[in-house]
Amino acid sequence: MQKNIPEITLAARNLKRRFGKHQVIQDVSLKLRRGEVLGLLGHNGAGKTTTLQMLTGCLLPDSGGIEVCGIDLLRRPSLAKAYLGYLPETPPLYRELSVNHFLTFAARVRGVKTADVPAALALSRQRCGLEAVGEKIIATLSKGYQQRVGIAQAIIHQPAVIVLDEPTVGLDPAQIRDIRSLIRELGNHSSVILSTHLLGEVESICDRVEIMHHGKLIYGDTSAHMQEYGHVSGFIISLRNPPDISVLAGIAGVSNVEQMTPNRFRVLYAPNNNPSDALLQLCAQQGWQLDQLTPLQATLEDVFVRITDAESAATGEAK
Predict the structure, then answer these.
(1) What are the beta bridge partners of residue 210?
(2) Tens-digit pLDDT profile for the chain (319 aa)?
(3) What CATH number should be reported for the domain holding residue 271?
(4) What is the CA radius of gyration of the chain?
(5) N or C end of the chain: smaller count of CB under 10 Å?
(6) Strands 37-41 and 191-196: what pairing?
(7) Do residues 147 and 89 both lie within one domain?
(8) Which GO terms describe its molecular function (predicted)?
(9) Is 0.85 surpassed by the pTM of this model?
(10) Does 288 share its domain with 174?
């Protein structure tokens, strides 16, 4: 691990990028903190890959600035990139090499001293679970293991910032679980920014979320707060012998009742005016026979749709 790492490890200011007449990235600004895992969330085509390519110095922005550990990436690219590790969506692997030979090559390219290469190789293999496949040819490995090799080359020089573009795309569920666990562990030693369109990725490994929509960042917060966005107070109730829906709607505090099935209702209420106690008493008194009462919880998918739909409505975009 490099020493004297600042609190803000990656900072982008007002990045813009145009391809032809199309403005792909519009005034993107973000910060990554030391030890943080940041998820860049968005639909396919939202601009995530283009943004990460600029943050890693692989693509020049038309305007804006980028600093890596306080070093200007555009003015001093070699020095700034020494603090970066990058895994593109397609891992940059030489598949005819063995894992050990490829990672040794990656270490030398990233400036690891010859005497330090064996230790760097051993550490990256250990962190990525590659000890048993060091002598195997990369082309013979499963896609999950090839992805591990891709991550290993990104961390071989122990960078302060690790950038991962869609790190679990195309993997099976077991491989996805393993890679997510690895990314979470990487966050204990480095700052990590990853792009994804998978909401489960954000929920399971990210400390903070930035949502990208049509080349703009439209929302940023912790993943926990994101789940509270647009929260609706209510619950789902199941009754074996339900009354008429008008009776439920007339209970003090209830703002709306939706009948989902003959025995199942979605009940909304005003914040700080939960009618569940009164409803439970009426169930016992009137013989409605309560089966289930479950508080409403917005899924990340619900929240993501609300945020992007609100942005589309605000900008007059057609859905």
Answers:
(1) 40, 220
(2) 566 889 999 999 999 999 999 999 999 999 999 999 999 998 888 999 999 999 999 999 999 999 999 999 999 999 999 999 999 989 999 999 999 999 999 999 999 999 999 999 999 999 999 999 999 999 999 999 999 999 999 999 999 999 999 999 888 888 888 999 999 999 988 999 999 888 778 888 999 999 999 999 998 887 777 766 656 688 999 999 999 999 999 998 899 999 999 999 989 998 788 899 999 999 999 999 999 998 876 666 677 777 777 777 776 665 4
(3) 3.30.70
(4) 25
(5) C
(6) parallel
(7) yes
(8) ATP binding; ATP hydrolysis activity
(9) no
(10) no
